[in-house]
Automatic annotation (TrEMBL):
This is Fe-S cluster assembly protein SufD. Pfam families: SUFBD_core, SufBD_N. Residues 21-191 form the SUF system FeS cluster assembly SufBD N-terminal domain. Residues 199-428 form the SUF system FeS cluster assembly SufBD core domain. InterPro entries: Fe-S_cluster_assembly_SufBD (IPR055346), SUF_FeS_clus_asmbl_SufBD_core (IPR000825), SUF_FeS_clus_asmbl_SufBD_sf (IPR037284), SUF_FeS_clus_asmbl_SufD (IPR011542), SufBD_N (IPR045595). GO terms for biological process: iron-sulfur cluster assembly. Coiled coil: none annotated. Belongs to the iron-sulfur cluster assembly SufBD family. It comes from the Bacteria.
Length: 456
């Protein structure tokens, strides 16, 4: 049995989403901001290479509510295949706005770990959700560049380009994953969220909140996959809170079908001597805009930011990254690699920002793009903003075609061109994949790459 959400972008529609009074106030404030802000255009530096003027917010229709399934056998085939090949401690499956299946063992709860969907968490753990929700990806446009500690006062973003999409998500999110790992607890196997949608002409707004308390450790896999759709939209927000001494590995794999527009902001807040390892993989959708940002709040904090993407046909992939150093003796290392085929377009804009007083910062940023076609295009904008005088920061970017000598070498030994290109692409991306200790995820990515190389 299905039920349709009122898709009207009005206060009445927001009120129908339900929830406690504090959440309704945040939603209504975000909705007001959404209507006040203009749609970002190419006159704005952060959106200079990506045109989203075709999005008609007035014509958006919310995705249809989906009833839960009774067993894993009733899940979409693509989700079943991923679950069978992925070793996880527990997982949630979402279809559009709803969680349709969950497998969360009691052993997690026995450790004090909370792993559920956000709507359920609002009922079962309301104080935790109220404490942390909107703290890292806020529901309002900030007026300065200072971020308050999560769980205290609402945060202020280090990125001045907060805008319409974040406000839309803050106002209209319907569900998402909630992970809370208490102090000193280590979750050995990854937790997973697998999201799909099956409906054309709709939008979904989802929100993920992961909290690791002091000296806790967890890996979270966040995957999105769908068949080919028409005029579908996925607006996401991901909040990653890594308390002092904690370790969080976050993996995002976006493989929506063609016909989808994907816009998502992912931000981590990293405490003293804490570590955030992130991997952003972009393979699907017609247009994808992903922002991955790490705020290194605590002294001795560390952030590893890995990314890879493969754009083919006329796909347009835009990645914006921010390594924001706010404390001394912090380390960040970014490595993004992309492949462009056919008439695709890739955009990478990366910023290393070092605040006044963040001495002994150690930050690296490297972006490389491989073009398989003379019609493919890539724009790369590495940037530095340094306000301290005792730092070590470097950035670099290269874009180029497949090495003709390497291709000739393989072809001369009888390797078909498609297989030769696959081998060279895999080798090009290997230094990213080799840093990912999740073999099931790596194999899945390699399979998608092989499929895209064959199609190209």
């Amino acid at each position: 049995m299905t039920q349709t959400i009122n898709a009207d972008l009005s206060p009445q529609a927001v009120q129908k989403l339900g929830g406690p009074e504090w959440l309704l106030e945040q939603r209504l404030s975000a909705l007001e901001l959404f209507h006040a802000l203009p749609l970002p255009d190419r006159k704005v530096e952060a959106w200079k290479y990506t045109d989203v003027s075709y999005i008609d917010f007035a014509g958006l229709r919310a995705a249809t509510r989906v009833a839960p399934v009774s067993g894993q056998d009733e899940l979409p085939a693509s989700v079943r295949a991923r679950l069978q090949s992925t070793d996880v401690a527990g997982y949630l499956v979402f279809d559009g706005p709803d969680v349709i299946f969950r497998n969360v063992p009691e052993s997690l709860s026995a450790q004090g770990v909370v792993f559920t969907d956000l709507r359920s968490a609002l009922e079962s753990h309301p104080q935790l959700v109220e404490k942390y929700l909107y703290q890292v990806v806020p529901a309002e446009v900030p007026d300065d560049t200072t971020i308050a500690a999560p769980g205290t006062t609402p945060s202020k973003s280090p990125d001045p380009s907060e805008g319409k999409f974040s406000a839309l998500n803050a106002a209209l999110w319907t569900n998402g994953a909630f992970v809370y790992v208490p102090r000193g607890v280590e979750v050995e196997l990854p937790l997973g969220s697998f999201r799909t949608m099956h409906e054309s002409g709709v939008f979904t707004a989802t929100r993920t909140l992961v909290v690791t308390e002091e000296n806790a450790k967890v890996t979270f896999i966040d995957e999105q996959d769908s068949p080919e759709l028409q005029d579908a939209y996925a607006f996401g927000a991901v909040e990653l809170i890594v308390r002092d001494g904690a370790q969080l590995r976050y993996v995002s794999v976006q493989n929506w079908g063609r016909g989808v527009t994907h816009v998502q902001r992912q931000r981590g807040d990293v405490g003293r001597d804490a570590t955030l390892n992130s991997l952003v993989v972009t393979m699907g959708a017609d247009l994808s805009r992903t922002e991955m940002q790490s705020y290194l709040r605590g002294q001795g904090s560390s952030s590893e930011m890995l990314g890879l993407y493969f754009a083919s046909a006329d796909q347009h992939f835009d990645h914006y990254t921010l390594q924001h150093h706010a404390a001394p003796h912090a380390h960040s290392d970014l490595l993004y690699k992309g492949v462009g085929a056919d008439e695709s377009r890739g955009v990478f804009s990366g910023m290393i920002k070092v605040d006044l007083g963040a001495q002994k910062t150690d930050a690296y940023q490297k972006h490389r793009t491989l073009l398989l076609s003379s019609e493919a295009r890539n724009d790369s904008i590495p940037q530095l903003e340094i306000n301290a005088n005792d730092v070590r920061c470097s950035h670099g970017s290269t874009t180029g075609p497949v090495d003709p000598e390497a291709l000739f070498y393989l072809r001369s030994r009888g390797v078909p061109r498609a297989l030769a290109e696959k081998m060279l692409v895999t080798a090009f991306l290997e230094d990213v994949l080799s840093r990912v200790p999740l073999q099931s995820v790596v194999k899945y990515i390699e399979a998608v790459i092989a499929e895209k190389v064959g199609a190209a």
